[in-house]
Write a structure and sequence with these properties.
The chain has 2 helices and 12 strands. The chain has helices spanning 40-49, 139-157; strands at residues 2-10, 21-29, 63-70, 80-84, 99-106, 119-124, 132-133, 136-137, 164-169, 174-177, 180-182, 188-189. Strand 7 (132-133) and strand 8 (136-137) form a beta hairpin. The chain is globular.
């Protein structure tokens, strides 16, 4: 059995690595499942489901998934890297790059185990204007995110054995199988995804 971190790196159209967008997932796989690359089509399907809500700053092709083992020893280099393309090119009007919607998930509550160690989150974005209605995430977008997460969870389980989508607890150095999750109807801010200034306006 292996605990795998899958770091999904979404490339931006400007091809500047500092602007690339990263999501880190955790999965449990049996040795019989082979390489972590068995997860690539499952992760691709998740992002394909949401492609119509992604900002056009995200390019269509050449996205990476870096697979590494947990807990690992620092520096924990990937043992495998895979590449995938989105099913369509993100398009539409851009929202500010810092805006995201958080996909939260958790394991079942267990006596004596702090629930904060059994929760995880992913910042989904940057987004286009189709993702927003009246300054909140659009209901259709929230529904799509929930459906995408449900489908991903089922697809990983269908790999067989003890395969599962997990939360990795740094404090406990252990995985917790994801039981359920939620998406709030409010935007979150991921400041490191913002663009760097290219000029400065001064006044006296």
């Amino acid at each position: 059995m292996a605990i795998i971190r899958a770091q999904v790196i979404l490339k931006t159209a400007d091809a500047i690595p500092e602007n690339f967008v990263s999501n880190s997932w955790c999965f449990r796989l049996d040795a019989s499942a082979g390489s972590g690359a068995v997860l690539t089509p499952i992760l691709k399907a998740f992002y394909d489901t949401l492609v119509s809500y992604y900002s056009p700053v995200i390019t269509q092709n050449g996205h990476e998934i870096k697979y590494s083992l947990l807990p690992g020893v620092m520096p924990n280099y990937p043992y495998d890297t895979d590449v995938f393309n989105l099913g369509a090119a993100p398009a539409g009007g851009k929202l500010p790059d810092e805006l995201a919607v958080v996909l939260s998930f958790q394991g079942q509550k267990a006596a004596g185990a702090p629930q904060a160690r059994r929760r995880g989150r992913l910042y989904i974005g940057p987004l286009d204007t189709a993702a927003a209605t009246d300054n909140r995430p659009a209901t259709a977008f929230l529904t799509a995110m929930g459906n995408a997460a449900t489908t991903l969870k089922a697809a990983v389980t269908a790999i067989g054995g003890t395969a599962a989508w997990c939360v990795w607890s740094v404090a406990d150095q252990a995985e917790v199988v994801v039981n359920d999750g939620w998406i709030d109807n409010a935007f979150d801010v991921q400041r490191r995804r913002g663009v760097l200034p290219t000029s400065r306006t001064t006044f006296i």
